[in-house]
Write a structure and sequence with these properties.
Elements: E1 9-13, H1 19-35, E2 39-41, H2 54-57, E3 61-65, H3 69-78, E4 82-85, H4 89-92, E5 102-106, H5 108-121, E6 127-130, H6 136-150, E7 157-158, H7 170-182, E8 188-192, H8 195-208, E9 216-221, H9 225-230, E10 236-240, H10 242-258, E11 266-269, E12 271-275, H11 288-299, H12 307-314, H13 318-329, H14 333-351, H15 356-362, H16 368-379, H17 383-391
Parallel strand pairs: 1-2, 1-3, 3-4, 4-5, 5-11, 6-7, 6-8, 8-9, 9-10
Antiparallel strand pairs: 10-12
Length: 392
């Protein structure tokens, strides 16, 4: 078989019910369109997929999430070039035959750092992590988050996630999580291992009588925009460059199937940044005037907000408010307004098809030229380059 062979037949054992799976498959499809055509075996569903009879089907490669020993053995028995998604710690052990497979995984350190910085920048000093006890990648994010926030002098609260199958049922777990959240010190910044878990945290907060984000600010991972927007309130989330990872995985599999690549390789799903939504749109400060000013700034995304309009609305001294802003946040009122505009412009670039000039207008920048200049100074790239990096 030669590289880019049109006879490639690939089994995709990947969940389609989650944004990670859908975006990953989009990247695989893009590679196939450019270098194929490939033929695929795929079925809709969640984490556990059915392995086809590869010899009868004529399969030449596999990309799979491997949820249990049964699926693992079927894949090993097929003896085909295989790329695994998110292997567990047990599967990665040197005495496990899955250890020799190429793997796709996210960087737990980078994902956790982005979530932690998002909460720390909002002045949260009570931090918590809610993961899944049955997922290795969740445990790795827990460790990375804990180690990072400790370098900032914060001892995180770790949710004792259940491991037994019967305890994983949300109807059984919800009251337990609600009680745990209720008893933690507030205001609380909480990092959930993914958007699914983040949505459950929001439900537990409601059951516990905790306001989001006033009492508990929540950040998830994956940035499933539909899922996040349907949450109440809409869920902030770490965005991952999943499609690119899917493309690179297909490229690697092509090399493995052709024999041009013989050694296993690792592909890292890059973390892009936090897409802020209402679940974390708050700054945890005790100063009532500073808190009120921040609420106004971020409610309007910094648009049509000036230092003068703030001090007039709050009936406070400009000098006093500026002094307290710098003492509490380490930045000026204008810095905060510009930061709110910048973050909103990033969200528009990521989530809408609006042109650069439309984004500049919607985010409150006077001209598109000033917007591009300001964006490049703060981000290190133009708005167009930023959008391309997010969607490539």
């Amino acid at each position: 078989m030669t590289l880019h062979s049109p006879k490639a037949r690939v089994a995709l054992l990947i969940e389609t019910a989650r944004v990670f799976g859908r975006e990953f498959l989009r990247g695989v499809a893009k590679y196939s369109h450019e270098h194929g055509p490939w033929s695929f075996h795929i079925s809709p569903g969640d984490y556990e997929q059915v392995v086809p009879k590869m010899q009868q089907w004529g399969g030449t490669g596999i990309i799979a999430r491997i949820p249990n020993e049964r699926v693992a053995q079927q894949i090993l028995d097929a003896g085909l070039p295989t790329i695994a998604l998110g292997l567990t710690d047990t599967q990665l052990a040197e005495d496990n035959p899955l250890h020799s497979l190429s793997e796709v995984s996210s960087n737990p350190v980078e994902v956790s750092r982005l979530a932690a910085d998002h909460l720390l920048d909002r002045q949260f000093r009570n931090l918590a992590y809610v993961g899944r006890g049955d997922r290795g990648w969740s445990s790795r994010r827990e460790i990375a988050f804990s180690e990072y926030v400790r370098t900032h002098g914060v001892q995180p609260h770790i949710y004792p996630a259940p491991v037994k199958k019967r305890d994983l049922e949300w109807e059984r777990e919800q009251a337990i999580m609600a009680k745990w959240i209720r008893e933690l010190p507030k205001p609380l910044g909480l990092f959930a291992c993914n958007d699914d878990r983040g949505r459950e945290v929001l439900e537990a907060c409601a059951l516990a009588g905790c306001r989001v984000p006033e009492d508990v600010a929540v950040v998830g991972v994956d940035n499933d925009d539909v899922f996040c927007e349907l949450s109440d309130p809409p869920l902030s989330s770490v965005s991952l460059n999943i499609e690119t990872a899917g493309y690179r995985a297909a490229e690697l599999l092509d090399g493995l199937m052709s024999g041009q690549i013989t050694e296993p390789r690792s592909i890292t799903v890059e973390a892009l940044g936090v897409v802020a939504r209402r679940s974390s749109e708050i700054i945890a400060v005790e100063d009532e005037d500073v808190s009120a000013a921040l609420q106004i700034i971020h409610h309007h995304h910094g648009k049509d907000v000036s230092v003068e309009s703030l001090v007039d609305e709050l009936a406070v001294s400009r000098r006093s408010l500026e002094k307290r802003f710098r003492a509490i946040l380490g930045r000026s009122i204008l810095d905060e307004v510009q930061l709110a505009r910048l973050n909103y412009s990033k969200r528009l670039l990521l989530e809408t098809p609006n042109s650069i000039s439309q984004v500049a207008k919607l985010a409150g920048f006077g001209t598109v030229g000033y917007f591009i200049q300001f964006f490049r100074q703060r981000v290190g790239k133009t708005p167009g380059q930023f959008r391309e990096d997010l969607t490539r």
